[in-house]
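call fold(seq) -> tokens
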Amino acid sequence: MGRERDVAPVPKQAPQQQVAQMVEQLLAVNPYNPEILSELENYVNEQVSSQTYSLDANLCLLRLYQFEPERMSSQIVARILVKALMAMPAPDFGLCLFLIPERVQMEEQFKTLIVLSHYLETGRFRQFWDEAAKSRHIVEVVPGFEQAIQDYAIHVLSLTYQKVPRSVLAEALNIEGLSLDKFLEQHVANNGWILEKGHAKGQLIVLPRNEFNHPELKKNSADAIPLDHVTRILPILG
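ret:
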């Protein structure tokens, strides 16, 4: 008998990777086939549970809903929009909203999400968190929502401030007290933040330097963020 050859085991893919690959294949073959609608709906739920995201798949589903309006699921559309909010500052929310009929947008949950989007785009974080607190049944079904918005708030603050007062940071992140202390400790240790005392014993957080909060660092590079992207999200912090 010949010696058996050792065969390396084929690595198993995580279920979400398998689902993502299947959806990519469906989109590549025929993205306008209504027969894939249920698979795309299931993929939205998979994105929610696995905290992953596919704008292309979600846009494809919204386009299919335009051709099959009687099959539209308001729950699925709401989840798509919440995931799009979590992707800010990318313009995903507007791209998705463009594919949703106006009559659907008038439903209460979608009007709420549009208001939340407006607050984020204009940097009105206190109003955003107040409104989100009244709409927990919409946003909290998507894990990671709060952290994603906090990341976006930090992004906006880093474009605006060299040193941000603790009170401004607390309002933007919707955390305070010991929770904020722990948050600051983590960012000091991992992201280069520096804590210093300000006037009237107010704490200031020194944010990492970038070409927006330190214009002298600006480079003439092809990968610079377009000015209109910056001005759109900078209005009212001050």
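The chain has two domains: 16-142, 160-237.
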